[in-house]
Amino acid sequence: MDHVAGYVLCLDMTARDVQDDCKSKGLPWTLAKAFNTSCPVSEFIPKTKIPDPGNVKLWLKVNDQMRQNGSTSQMIFSIPYLINYISDIISLEEGDLILTGTPKGVSSVQEHDEIEAGIEGIVTMSFKVDRL
Predict the structure, then answer these.
(1) What is the pLDDT of residues 50-71, one digit of tens each?
(2) For the Fumarylacetoacetase-like C-terminal domain, which residue ranges apply (predicted)?
(3) Which of these CATH numbers, 3.30.465.10, 3.90.850.10, 3.30.1330.10, 3.20.20.30, describes 41-128?
């Protein structure tokens, strides 16, 4: 963890309809992950603001309705474990992001939905879902 500069809140969105279409045609899923607003990233959070990354409360609302509310303490693998595992396979460089997963409650969203997400007491971000 000595090499971790900080954290960001990211939302890894997927266009499931596009993904399903690509799957049915045996095509790569790239287009399902590459659309406007497909991976919003919060402002940078220095690691001093999150002294225990293993116990961070995360939440997400869609159109002001709570959809996800959980903690990194519920993750299958700890953040130090994930960093160690990934760095054994991939050379990590300054500025690289590792998206670690999401609390239960994943559900579909529609174009123009308003999404608000946050790390309790640390950062919030909001955006409108946009599709190409």
Answers:
(1) 999 999 999 999 999 999 999 9
(2) 1-129
(3) 3.90.850.10
